[in-house]
Design goal:
The complex is a heterodimer.
Chain A lengths: L3 E10 L2 H16 L5 H20 L7 H5 L4 E9 L2 E11 L3 H12 L3 H17 L7 H10 L4 E6 L4 E10 L1
Antiparallel strand pairs in A: 1-2, 2-3, 3-5, 4-5
Chain B lengths: L4 E4 L7 E5 L4 E8 L4 H16 L6 E10 L1 H14 L7 E7 L4 H13 L4 E5 L4
Parallel strand pairs in B: 3-4, 4-5, 5-6
Antiparallel strand pairs in B: 1-2, 2-3
The chains are: A alpha+beta, B alpha/beta.
Chain lengths: ~170, ~130
């Protein structure tokens, strides 16, 4: 039987301060859990990438309408399912960006560990050539560290906005 | 004109930095997981750009991370690339990781593969 224990959950507007608080809180919580340092480090670094990814992909110039429509909101749920950590995130995404993201995630999911390492190294050296380029390094890193495929889903909200759900099971 | 030393105290999301232009010893230690890594690394990169125009006889960069996020990895790549301006046999990168910290060992191996500088990847137990 599947047993799920929620460790931390959050729903609301994502700000830089909030990211910091969630990370501090999660770290403190894990210190009280009987987990190996290796597992703790993995969960924490994957969470860092997940949250920062969401934050960086928010529209840079939100309108009042964005706030009213909760376009800058996200949900984060961290739990343990059958003794494995599961991080679930959900955030709004412009429909126009979905195809590109889906393609990137499918490419990552088609790779084994060696392929991911090579892809990560290539993206990292390219990113350093043009520091502003978002090479999707975060997602590759998450896939590498989790040891599992990125389980995702897109839901349609309206003609412009979708909702991106990402589930990361951590080995 | 840059000063001869650069010191930055650690925070819970950014590392301790200690650069000395007169000895050529550069240390970066701790956590590097800021949400905006370019903001943190920009002054370091500018400082190193000045340094490479008149470097010490040998330059030793010692790096020991507990955590590094991908945003910091990009900035660190940029910083290390600046150091490639110095002749290869005058620069050494000592990438340390705590014994058993496979993730930080792997991070060092990634940099070693893509940065054109001599890397020594060592567990803190053996160094």
């Amino acid at each position: 039987m599947e047993e799920e224990n929620v460790i931390l959950s959050f729903k609301g507007i994502i700000t830089a301060d909030l990211l910091t608080s969630v990370l501090h809180l999660m770290e403190a919580k894990m210190e009280t859990m009987e987990e190996s340092p290796r597992t703790r480090k993995r969960v924490f670094s994957i969470l860092v990438e997940c949250l920062q990814n969401i934050y960086h992909h928010l529209d840079e110039n939100p309108t009042q309408a964005d706030f009213e429509a909760h376009n800058r909101s996200a949900v984060v749920l961290i739990s343990k399912v059958n003794n494995q950590f599961l991080i679930r995130t959900g955030n709004c995404i412009n429909l126009a960006k979905i195809m590109e993201l889906k393609e990137r995630l499918d490419t990552i999911n088609s790779m084994d560990q060696d392929g991911l390492r090579e892809m990560y190294q290539t993206s990292l050296s390219e990113a350093a050539m043009s520091p502003k380029a978002t090479a999707g390094l975060g997602m590759i890193d998450i896939a590498r560290k989790s040891g599992n495929k990125l389980d995702y889903e897109f839901l349609e909200i309206d003609a412009n906005m979708g909702f991106f759900c990402l589930n990361i099971l951590i080995d | 004109m840059s000063s001869t030393t650069l010191h930055i105290q650690p925070t819970s999301f950014t590392p301790e930095v200690s650069f000395d232009a007169s000895t050529g010893k550069f240390d970066i230690k701790g956590r590097s997981i800021p949400e905006n890594a370019p903001e943190f690394y920009h002054p370091l990169i500018e400082w190193v750009k000045e340094y490479v125009s008149n470097p010490a006889a040998t330059t030793t960069v010692t790096i020991l991370f507990d955590y590094i996020n991908t945003s910091s990895s990009k900035s660190l790549m940029h910083l290390l690339n600046v150091l490639t301006a110095i002749s290869e046999n005058e620069v050494n990168i000592h990438w340390l990781y705590k014994a058993g910290d496979e993730a930080m060992k792997e991070a060092g191996e990634d940099f070693n593969t893509i940065v054109n500088l001599p890397f020594h990847i060592l567990s803190t137990e053996n160094s």
